[in-house]
Structures are given as C-alpha cells and as structure tokens.
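Protein modeling request. Please complete all fields; requests missing the sequence field cannot be processed.
Requester role: graduate student
Desired output: 3D structure, token encoding
Chains: 1
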Amino acid sequence: MISKQTRLIVFDWDGTLMDSTGRIVSAMQTTATNLKLPIPSVDDVRGIIGLNLTECYKRLFPEVDDHDWITKEYRYQYVEGDPTPSPLFEGTAETLEHLKSNGHLLAVATGKAREGLDRVLNDSGLKSIFDLTIASDEAHGKPHPEMLNKLMSHTKTSPEQSIMVGDTTFDLEMAKKAGMPSIGVSFGAHTIEMLRTCQPQAIIDDIRQLKGRLS
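Delivered output (215 residues):
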C-alpha cells in the first residue's frame, strides 16, 4: 500500500496504459525513411517516448529546424500508415474501474498532443473513466511539473494525496519535481534500471498490481 491518503492517480498513456511503444518506434523509423532523414535506432526512439514531439525531433533529428513536415508524416504513419497493433495492456480497463470504484480521482498526463489524446481516449473506450486529462500542448512538456501542478490544482489535491504512474524517467522526474510520489511500470519504454534512478515508490510488472497497492 502506498498511502491511505492517495486521492488522485495520474497515469501516463503510451507504454503505461497502452502498448504503443512498438508502433511509435516503427512509425518514427518509417517517417525518417520516407523523409530521407537519418533513421533512429529502436533504443533512440524508445528513449524519447513521453516527450512532446518538438523535443523528440530535437533529439532524434538535431540537424532539422522546421518540424512541421516531420509532424505531418509521423502523424499519418502513427494513425493510418503503420499496422503495428497498439492495444491496451491486459487488465487496464478493469484496474481503472477498480480504482475508480474505490473513490480515487483518475487523470492522464501525456506527451501526446490533445488531438492524439482525444483520439485514443475515444478509440479505447476509456474517456469517461478519467476525471481529468492534460496533453503536452496544454502545458510545458515532461519532465516539467506543470501538467501535474495543473491537475492537482483542478482537483484540489496536494502532492501528498497524489501519485504518478508511468513507464519513463520523464514521468517519474516530473512527479519528483512536483513533490509527488511515483510508481514505475517495467513493461513500457524505459528499463527498470533507468526507472530506479528516479527512486519511485515501487516498480510494478503488471498494471493489475495497482489494485493491491492503491486500494
């Protein structure tokens, strides 16, 4: 059990609730191929998952100043062009429903832009379960704490009453900067060793383990 005071549970999306890491990697590599840019490695793309797209491009394609044409191609590949499946992790919906039924406020803080977040919320059928969501084009991107600060302000919760659940160091660093505890998940983009450097309260191997820790 993390804390009996926990009211607000904030989830990252990609790699935490949705198994989309493979699709992000494939779509980004295809984008680079089609635009004749240097093709980033799998590890390079996994390393930027969670950041907003502008920051992703700066790290993956530092030689490019104008990112609009990359965004257009990448969004096409991710939404329509790439066939890699990106289902919810097994147990995600039931876990969220369990936490909700126990009185927790549920939120999402993601590196996706609002357009992309709304699409996956609708497609996954999870939109109604969240009390609040925030995207990277509505605040400073991770690991800046603004997204978490806004969520806590809207829900009138303190850092001690909140917790961040995410699969990347960007999620956990964001929580630390907001004064909020965190839980890492081992099945997303960043390795357990990377997550441990951020000193989360716990690292779980299955989203359903939250039911025992945040009841």
